[in-house]
Description:
Elements: H1 2-13, E1 15-17, E2 25-27, E3 33-35, E4 41-43, H2 46-60, H3 64-73, E5 75-76, H4 83-97, H5 107-120, E6 124-125, H6 127-146, H7 152-171, H8 177-188
Antiparallel strand pairs: 1-4, 2-3, 5-6
Helix pairs in contact: 1-7, 2-3, 2-7, 3-4, 4-5, 5-6
Amino acid sequence: DLVEAYLKQIIVDGFAHADPHPGNVHLTPGNRIILMDLGMVAKFSTGMQDKLLKLLLAISNMDGDAMTDTLLSMSDYDEEISTGHFRKYINRMVMDNQGYMAKEMQMGRFLIQVNRVAADQGIRIGVELNILGKILVNLDQIVATLTPEFDLQGSIKKHVEKLMQQKLLNELKPGSLLNVLVDAKNLAK
């Protein structure tokens, strides 16, 4: 429920509690999740939500080329930068992590490593990726403590279709219907 709530916040709502450490996540006696201390929040534009969704899907599928394409679409870099080297590093990271069981894959740690590789290559990834990495590092720790056998990658795959439907429904407003259809077409591609 916690992971699904965070995916919804990031992908559908575009507004997320950005500090989910154990002191800010509580369970009620009725087993409802409560997020405390909204001192650190993140806002994601519709375009960034789509890119983050693509990135999370690529990571959960361990698809290095799709990861690289999405990362480059959310980054700034000089024309003379060799994106081929970056692609090679990302694919190597994917291969290095494929030996892990899905439940052992720490997505937050992986995103922080990706950001480090990008910076070394002269690629400036948007701050939203850093925020997502921070959120996922904390979620990785909470989930590992509460349910060590939980499969975060599998959970993302499982909830993605429902999240995409919710996102489309939320964006269906009379004034933005045409923009939504164009965005949906691009996202589907």
